[in-house]
Design brief:
Layout lengths: L1 H6 L16 H16 L5 H13 L3 H8 L17
Helix pairs in contact: 2-3, 3-4
C-alpha cells in the first residue's frame, strides 16, 4: 500500500508538520509577533534583532517555531492538518 502512495507522488510515511517549508507570509507573520513581543517588553531590542534574523532565514516550521516558542501568548499549536489553525 505504501508503494501505491509513492507512485501517486505521496510519501510512504506521514510528514511531520514541523518539517514543512514555510512561506514568506508565515515569516512576515512571525515578524509581526516579534514586533508585538518587543512592544510588550517580552524581549529586548537585541533579542528582537536576533530572533527576526532567524525568522527571516527559517526554511521549516520547526525553525520558525523556535523563534517564538518561549514567548507567552504567541505559541501556535498545530492542528492535525499541520496548518496551525
Amino acid at each position: 500500500m505504501a508503494e501505491e502512495g509513492a507512485k501517486l507522488g505521496q510519501p510512504p510515511h506521514p510528514i511531520d508538520p514541523r518539517e514543512l517549508r514555510v512561506s514568506d507570509a508565515e515569516r512576515e507573520h512571525v515578524a509581526g509577533l516579534l514586533n508585538k513581543a518587543l512592544a510588550r517588553g517580552l524581549i529586548d531590542l537585541d533579542g528582537f534583532a536576533e530572533r527576526l534574523g532567524a525568522a527571516l532565514a527559517a526554511k521549516t516550521r520547526a525553525e520558525l517555531n523556535t523563534v517564538v516558542i518561549d514567548l507567552p501568548g504567541v505559541v501556535v499549536r498545530n492542528a492535525p492538518n499541520g496548518r496551525g489553525d
